[in-house]
Amino acid sequence: MSSLASHLKLVPDHSKKTNDKPIQKRSLGRVLLAQNWVTESDLLKAWSIQAYEQAAIGEILIGMGKITQDQLYWALGELHDLDIVDFAIHPPSLNWVDFSTPIQSLQKGYIVWRCTDTHMTIAVTDPNMIENLRAEFHDKDKLLDFVLITPPELQKFIAGTQADILKDNALSCCPDAYSCKSWMTWSKPNILRFGLLSVLVTIAVINPATTIFICLCIVFATLTVLMWFRLFCLYTLYSRKNNKHAKPNKRMKRPKVSILVPLYKESAIINRLINRLSSIEYPKELLEIHLIYEQNDDETKNAITILNQPDHIKFLEVPDGHLKTKPRAMNYALDFCTGSIIGIYDAEDAPEINQVECVIQHLNAADDDVACVQCVLDFYNPKTNWMSRCFTIEYAILFRVILPALSKYKLPIPLGGTSVFFRRNILEKMGRWDAYNVTEDADLGYRLYRMGYRCEWINAITYEEANYRFIPWIKQRSRWLKGLLFTGLVHLRNPIKLHQKIGTLAFMSMVSLTIIPWLLCPLVPIILPMWVLSIGYDLPYYSNLPPYFITGLVGLFIATECLSFVLGFTATNTPNHKHLRPWIFTTILYWPITCFASYKALFEMIIRPSYWDKSEHGLNDQLYEKEIEKLTQNSAQFPINKN
Questions:
Q1: Which of 118, 135, 167 is the last residue of a domain?
Q2: How many domains does the chain have?
Q3: Engineered SS bond to 414: which of 32, 442, 464, 512, CB 3.0-4.6 Å?
Q4: Quick one: pLDDT band at residue 547, thresholds 50, 70, 90?
Q5: Position 389 confidence tier, pLDDT thresholds 50, 70, 90
Q6: Is the same domain home to 375 and 459?
Q7: Domain membership flag for residue 624
């Protein structure tokens, strides 16, 4: 190899031979064999694996545990006559930013290490990119030279020196037209909206009879829409409509998958999380998992110092900022990912071990407009208490009835915040996540649809920890309600234009899942007296309303509750959920609790709209370790209906 000293000079010695010449193609395998790091059998196995994977031989050998990354880069240096630099000792010149942005350097894997009037040395993570870089920098009229840098060293350098640029990009990558950023400040329109709300509340207090009548009219309209939406989902679930345009499953090489796992104060569960993620059955050379934590999260930082995680599981620190939300952290981390498929997990998740493989197979067979895949979310602790049972029933209705129905009819899906996998090129085109939205998942699902893409649902399961305590449940639900309303307001800014673009079914499904909850949850105190009215008792204010109106409203209310029971029984028609069926009737006491969450959400929308009221994890998952292992190892799926 050429001397590293020549590369360190600002004015290189051109009397010495440089590597500005066509690279001679030699065998990496022979270099490794010469060092006795691998055997011929290892190489044959790696070559056979490469026929099915989008991975280089060196990456496969690392995944097989035959060589280390340091050994691979030493061999690449020998093969291509390149020196390996250490940025901690010899950092790039300050003018490297004149030739590429930090994001470009991270994504493309190179950085201009030295540059003078006549000579340029570029540090690359992959020697195969050298010829392309020669063409890219041909117009610079400089002698080109190259050195090697390992990906972790390049990422560490850019993260340490360009943190401000990267964190600013994490806040601004979502287009303003699709962001709720404008709702985060006391702008003139927001002040007018708050003033209008204050006037309405004042009128309601002054004239309660008229207010109750208007609210009951709203309840009647929303229950009607909600009932038809649920009937549509049930009909769709059992219909025999097929996606006729799905492509036949073709042979493909497995792509690389990058999984983001945002963490915040997760010391209680992080060790078990790593064990669960380590069990995922997907080639390790094609899987990288980034555990993302905030710079000021000392609790998590202290916990990870004593961990011994596998090489494909990495930790990534997000620089401190005025906004601390999950989507901001994921936007920042995406620049450090190398996969073409991006997945999301939460700290308490326990995915089925074959879930990633199922996702890749589904995306392979899906149409080109399918941007992402949403897996089923379920709970491993439903038997904890009454609230966890009702929460599990609610999730079963959403992920086993509503989302499959929307997916079957190619309607917009409000994505879950975890166990969702994106095609990276489409995710980048979409503007990533809205850093200001506390339900960035639902927002992105609707944004995908508006821009001509779809999400599909598959029956691959991730098990989570159900929130089984009242106050934490209220905190979590208030964040969801706040984010759903912001999502609805953002996407329904121009409802007529949106309806014309996406159609009636898509429009109504969006309204049913974002606006309807906000029209019903705060009005629970006005809705609950209908149980009393249904058994013939008179109530103040209600008795003055037309009898036919009250009769129709009570009948609609009872029909809606009965339909909720039907949804519950349909959703729990699996071997793992039938034990919940006796509890379905008690959900009439569960749904009204959301009113408390809606009041908290309304308060936060005014005072601190982007506040992320974090859920605490790892409370009782240790009690269910055997159950979790049994559930995640079981790859058999239990469909609700057989078409």
A1: 167
A2: 2
A3: 442
A4: confident
A5: very high
A6: yes
A7: yes
Do 158 and 237 fall within a single domain? no
Quick check: 3 and 107 in contact, CB under 8 A? no
Residue for token pair 């309601």: 204
Higher pLDDT, residue 537 or 54: 54
Please, what's the largest Cα pairwise distance for the chain?
A: 102
Q: Final residue of a domain: which of 118, 142, 167?
A: 167
Describe the crossing of helices 151-161 and 163-172 by its angle, rounded to 10 degrees: 80
Q: Are 457 and 637 in contact (CB under 8 A)?
A: no
- Domain membership flag for residue 195: no
Residue 23, pLDDT above cutoff 50: no
In a domain, 159, yes or no: yes
122 and 254 inside one domain? no
Residue 265 backbone zone (phi > 0: left; psi -120 to 50: alpha; other: beta): left
Six token digits for residue 364 = 């392979």
Contact in structure between 50 and 285 (CB atoms under 8 Å): no
Q: Between 270-278 and 625-633, two packed helices, what is the crossing angle to 10 degrees?
A: 20
Distance CA 548, CA 173 (A): 53
Q: Which residues are paired to 314 by β-bridges?
A: 290
316: domain CATH number?
3.90.550.10
pLDDT tens for 71-103 read 999 999 999 999 999 999 999 998 899 999 999
pLDDT digits (tens, 9 = 90+) for 217-247: 999 999 999 999 999 999 988 876 555 445 5
| List of long-range contacts for 247-253, beta carbons under 8 Å, 24+ apart | 247/365, 247/366, 247/367, 248/365, 249/361, 249/364, 249/365, 250/364, 250/365, 252/364, 253/51, 253/52, 253/53, 253/54
Cα dist from 530 to 200, 216, 516, whole Å: 24, 10, 19
Nearest Cα to Cα of residue 12 among 151, 154, 166, 118: 118
Residue 641 counted as domain residue: no
Q: Which DSSP letter does residue 353 get?
A: T
Residues 159 and 240 in one domain: no
- Quick one: 109 and 256 in the same domain? no
116 and 244 together in one domain: no
pLDDT tens-digit readout, 390-399: 999 999 999 9
Token pair, residue 166, equals 């990267």
Domain span including residue 431: 233-526+594-633
Q: Is residue 391 domain-shared with residue 508, that is, in the same domain?
A: yes
Q: What is the pLDDT of residues 309-352, one digit of tens each?
A: 888 999 999 999 888 899 999 999 999 999 999 999 999 999 99
119-124 β-sheet, strand order: 110-115, 119-124, 143-148
Torsion of CA 157, 162, 163, 166, to 10 degrees: -110
Global pTM exceeds 0.85: yes
